[in-house]
Design goal:
Elements lengths: L6 E3 L5 E3 L23 H13 L6 H38 L4 H9 L1 H37 L12 H17 L7 H23 L6 H8 L9
Helix pairs in contact: 1-6, 3-4, 4-5
Family: Belongs to the amino acid/polyamine transporter 2 family.
Keywords: Amino-acid transport, Cell membrane, Disulfide bond, Membrane, Transmembrane, Transmembrane helix, Transport
Membrane topology: Multi-pass membrane protein
Length: about 230
């Protein structure tokens, strides 16, 4: 399927831009595929996995403690099915319209109000995700540094959450946000994914070395989420 015009008319008269890149179908019938010039498939997978897991992975243990194994597994299955169906609808829409951006899909489906709604949703999601990351850095990074430097006297600057937050934002977050192509984020996404796997393996191994009792587990589960320090 190839769009013949440079724009697509919506039901209410709006036009959606569909250039050469956007008019190319996601799943072509011909075996030859033209490179889009963006990120590679591997880096795209790492970016997607990093976006899916994110900081929400920190609350999974608390959710399991409150819902139980069966309830938690059922909720995970329901969310996974809803996510898979949503992706299916997006891909079908892309194939039918030859549009590959969220805003233009919203414009094609619901007009200008749909495009504005999609843009606001993306903005809220990104701001919320970044705020959660920065909050975790501010609250957890000082405790992690203090565990490696137990003999620190007073309150040094490297144990101040606000100072570490400013340094992280200026030295790490800002340069990554200024990258010319999103494909470069594949390196950091792959690194963060391997760190997640590493810490998950460490927690599973250390679990057998830590004494466990029902009273200590109940007292820990009563602590509000976000205040537990590893």
């Amino acid at each position: 399927m190839q769009a013949s015009d440079s724009s697509i008319n919506t039901l209410d008269g709006h036009q959606v831009s569909a250039g050469r890149d956007e008019s190319t179908p996601l799943l072509a019938n011909s075996p030859q595929r033209r490179s889009s010039g963006g990120t590679s498939f591997g880096f795209a997978v790492f970016n997607l996995m990093n976006a899916i897991m994110g900081s929400g992975i920190l609350g999974l243990s608390y959710a399991m403690a409150k819902t139980g194994i069966l309830g938690f597994s059922a909720l995970l299955l329901i969310v996974a099915l809803l996510a898979a169906y949503s992706i299916h609808l997006l891909l079908r829409m892309c194939l039918l319209t030859a549009v590959t951006s969220y805003e233009d899909l919203g414009l094609y489906a619901f007009g200008r109000s749909g495009k504005v709604l999609v843009a606001c949703t993306i903005l809220i999601q990104n701001v919320g995700a970044m705020s959660s990351y920065l909050f975790i850095i501010k609250s957890e990074l000082p405790a992690a540094i203090a565990s490696f430097l137990p003999g620190a006297q007073g309150e040094p600057w490297y144990l101040d959450g606000r100072t570490l937050l400013i340094i992280t934002s200026v030295c790490i977050v800002l340069p990554l946000a200024l990258l010319p192509k999103i494909g470069f984020l594949g390196y950091t996404s792959s690194l963060s994914f391997f760190f997640m796997v590493y810490f998950a393996v460490v927690i599973v191994i250390k679990k057998w070395n830590i004494p466990w009792s029902s009273s200590s587990a109940k007292s820990y589960c009563n602590i509000p989420p976000g205040t537990q320090h590893l």
